[in-house]
Write a structure and sequence with these properties.
Arc Repressor Mutant, subunit A; 0% strand; rod-shaped; disordered N terminus
Length: 181
């Protein structure tokens, strides 16, 4: 394959106006870049290093500012790429340092929230239980609704229904037995 046509096409593909960025122009955005990196990396010294890498890439000519965006936007874009590279690099090292069993354990961390299928199952059971409570005889249903569903105090339920506390517990026991059958 002849490399001459390819070399001739490269300069035409580059932007016509590549703006030179001075050190003082970049330095004006340093604090914003460091804050951005600190929010992402949660490590001030590492953030400083990544911002330094951005400046080094610009000054060494590995990154050329074409002027199609604001300087800070361009620098931030380079910084984002540097952060992604750093995270990928560190992840690779950590996976080599740790055994595969720890990686598997990390993937098997349980979420404290129930899964959607568990939520649907719980709702279905609740609906069935409420239907069964509604099917109880009046004297048992009233006790269950007041004491268990509305969480009223035993003394309040006894006063409202004009029954003794022993009778309340007997009715609750009978209602639970019927609900379990």
């Amino acid at each position: 394959m002849n490399a001459a046509p390819l070399a001739a096409a490269l300069p035409a593909a580059l932007p016509a106006a590549v703006a030179a960025v001075s050190w003082t122009e970049m330095l004006a955005h340093r604090e914003a870049l460091v804050r951005f990196a600190q929010r992402r990396l949660l490590d001030p010294s590492l953030a400083e290093d990544v911002v330094h890498d951005v400046f080094e890439a610009v000054l060494s000519g590995r990154a050329a500012f074409a002027g199609r965006s604001a300087l800070r936007s361009w620098l931030t874009a380079i910084l984002k790429h540097k952060i992604v590279d750093l995270v990928r690099q560190r992840t690779g090292w950590e996976s080599l340092d740790h055994g595969s069993t720890e990686d598997e354990e990390a993937r098997q961390i349980e979420c404290p929230q129930p899964r959607p299928d568990e939520v649907a199952e719980q709702r279905e059971r609740l609906a069935q239980t409420l239907q069964r409570i509604d099917a109880l005889p009046d004297n048992l249903r009233e006790v269950v609704q007041r004491r268990l569903l509305q969480d009223q105090d035993s003394a309040e339920v006894c006063a409202a229904l004009s029954i003794s506390e022993e009778n309340l517990f007997v009715r609750l026991h009978r209602a639970r037995k019927q609900l379990l059958n």
